[in-house]
Amino acid sequence: MTVDALAETLGQRIPAQRLVRDSLRRLAYGADASFYRLVPALVVRPENEVELLAVIEECREGGWPMTFRAAGTSLSGQAVTDGVLVQLGRGWRDAEVLDGGARIRLAPGVIGARANQLLAPLGRKIGPDPASINSCMIGGIAANNASGMCCGTAQNSYHTLAGLRVMLLDGSVLDTTDPQSVAEFRESHAALLDGLERLAANARTDVELARRIRHKYRLKNTTGYALNSLVDFRDGIDILAHLMIGSEGTLGCITSITYHSVPEPPCKAAALMFFPDLSSACRATMALRSAPVAAVEMMDRAALRSVERSPGMPARLRDLPPEATALLVDVRGEDANVLDSSIDEVGRALEGITTLDPITFTDCTETYAMYWKVRKGLFPAVGAMRALGTTVVIEDVAFPIERLEEGVAALTAAFHRHGYSDAILFGHALEGNLHFVFPQGFEQPGEIERYQALMDDVARLVAVEFGGSLKAEHGTGRNMAPYVELEWGSDAYELMWQIKALFDPLQLLNPEVMLSRNPTLHLENLKPLPVVHELVDRCIECGFCESVCPSRDLTLTPRQRIVLARERGRLEALTAPDESEQQWLADFSRREADYLIDETCAADGMCSTRCPVDINTGELVLALRQQRHLSKAPLARRIGHHFSGTTRVARTGLRLLSVGRRILGDGAMEGASRWMHRASGDRLPQWSPAMPEAAPIRMLHKVRQEGYRDQVVYFPSCATRVFGADSRDADSRAAMDIVLRLLDKAGYDVVIPEMPGHLCCGMAFSSKGMDNEATHKARELNRELLVASQNGRLPILFDTSPCSLQILDHLDERLEVRDPVAFAHDYLLNRLQLTPLNESVAVHVTCSAHRKGLHDSFIALAQACAREVVEPQGISCCGFAGDKGFRVPELNASALDGLASQVSACAFGVSNSRTCEIGLTQHSGITYHSVLDLLDRVSQAPSSKL
């Protein structure tokens, strides 16, 4: 069956918008965190089991290989394919806490950190704790048997599995938590279960094989299938369920998993210990095996050197001797007494082992976080420092803990033998699990051969000489598939092929992953990383950015935009592109490409808050916009020079829309607006019922300056000068009115800059790529703020958070600009008497507030004003992005999908950007106001001033 025929057939069972056939999105969606690249022939986004069944059935009938993917943060090439890529995202995010938190049921599209957020109030968490937990999804965590820093082997998915639901190649579904499903499956799949039980019986009776299996899983091990299921269980259902863990989608698709949760002790402390060399650190690790520690993380000197100059790192790192090695030791307890007792035991265990500094534990939150920042910054540091055009290889091996010291020495010698002197070594030492990271280019002659020689050497050393595991927690993938037989031996390897045949006789489920007869598979389909733009060249395509991107379910994520930018740059650099490459270039020239890459990007910078190398992909998009809009510079200049007139026109337009709304009604008005928006090629903004009234700008001329009170400069943003109250909400008020009332109650006289209607921070221009005029307006505002603040003597309040962030790069160093959250939290709370509302209030922290580190202040401010504060999960940026909520309303709708159900019990919501509040009101079912409105509602002037 051709891919066109497959797509046509699937189109009868799945909506066409979830069948991705265009070349650009197939390339973008096909990228994962590994250093391999395959472009899927078709990308399908099923949203339920009915649609997933359709995909499996049609692919099986048509002979199409399929790969199931959640977040694509996997590192070993297990989530790429040139067949059918099945993405489990929207529609697969259900989560349910069970038995008071003892268990939790999760769909594969749930982000790992979300599961822990649900369990945290109950003092529990899921066992697996991979470093990517804020981005990776449960489907990948289970399918790779991911573990992490405190997880060990006892708390991984295999050992905390309470049950799962899986769909097999024949379309059948087994839910091991449902007795009826189990009974029906036993009857319908007796042959499969008998086959598994027979393989298990043979494995148990083969004394040498059983011994080898038990030895392998004494360590962290994700190489090959979970053969421990054959010796741990006798019942076919149990064997099947545990074989699914770590199977990387090669046996079936997990559609739900139920975990036994584990305790999350409330008291934590850590010590960053420095040892003279690797050997002494290894001996210390052995001594800590019997101590009550949660984690022991080893970092060699090269690893420490990679982060020693990074912001926020301990100064001591720069003074360490050349061979020094660090251990980050984490201790946890139910209370302070347990914690202190554990710390004492650690001290006794390490008596007699030389350290460079006295061992000191800290439970200070800031210092504790700094220590872990050292450890978590290692992989990103290599990514940031690597030569452009190279990738970052991260491998993870496990040695038997009793041979850790000699294993580390042998591994280090192998790096130097093959010319990888820049490799860094770190890892979960308590488990004998070490990661080694190094930059690797594949373009230069001899580099592939050098990499192959290293991997052959490492495989022999770890798997054969030391009896360790080649993949401790990152999964086998394509990268280690050629070495599975070397590690396990031919008998165990053939056993794995028999398991594969029982589940997938047609070899359609993620073929060439886990098991492969191709000895050079790990050297093929290597990902090109051409140098295209200084803003994104350091990207390692890890995917950590994706979970906070507002367009992730609509078009592209930051990682995917960078993938397309790199491919375009590679193609444009070709001197003689072939026919297919010319077609790719033509695809980039179409309007669809601009829609994907540019128009649906909010350029909010949230991606930088999760990026391990601090990349703001929005800056790349803004640079592209600037190139595209060069011809509009004169228009931007005219608008900027007549900005007060522009805002007057906007307010007049709002008044006319209000008249039209009263005449036509919301339904007809919205329908007519939608038609006009589409007919104009999306150029005309689209009206929504959440559109506010025009702002009463006359308020700014009523400000009194009495001269005996404290003063503050107030700059009303252009958004609040244009958009007033919500006409549907009797309690809604214009932001300027709120600010002036609040400042008066707090005892401030207000100073308004001259020409307030003409001033702008520049965001209205920079967001459209008109940087010259944006800079002009920002400098213009800076001059007026200097005058109004008496050269910085007075604090300056902005009433929207995005504007306060925008102006930062242009501020005179004497100016102190505060956004509404920071000002209210730091200046107003202690000046007002509060009577908190006995209501539940929803909070949306804007992307700009997140980027300025104001999240906690925002929540604290809201909690001071209301009985209950609800912060919806999975909602980062609202996607309104200035005026995109009017011009690309689908971005706002997609970003806020799921918001209404989370805030339905709230009286209203608060945010700190007027335009964001419009979109939030539109898609939540409640009205959103400024957070200053909330503070004004619950506050009064101190009694001494009444």
TrEMBL record:
Recorded superkingdom: Bacteria
Keyword presence, Flavoprotein: yes
Gene Ontology terms: biological process: lactate catabolic process
Annotated ranges, domain FAD-binding PCMH-type: 36-264
Cofactor: FAD
Domain 4Fe-4S ferredoxin-type: 528-559
A Gene Ontology molecular function term of the record: metal ion binding
Keywords noted in UniProt: FAD, Flavoprotein, Iron, Iron-sulfur, Metal-binding, Oxidoreductase, Transit peptide
Any Pfam family the entry gives: Fer4_8
Stored Gene3D superfamilies: 3.30.465.10, 3.30.70.2740, Alpha-helical ferredoxin, Uridine Diphospho-n-acetylenolpyruvylglucosamine Reductase, domain 2, Vanillyl-alcohol Oxidase, Chain A, domain 4
Residue ranges crossing the lipid bilayer per the database entry: none
Enzyme Commission number(s) of this protein: 1.1.2.4
Top-level EC class as recorded in UniProt: oxidoreductase
Family stated for the protein in its record: Belongs to the FAD-binding oxidoreductase/transferase type 4 family.
Protein name, as recorded: D-lactate dehydrogenase (cytochrome)
Annotated organism of origin: Halomonas cupida
Source taxonomy: Bacteria, Pseudomonadati, Pseudomonadota, Gammaproteobacteria, Oceanospirillales
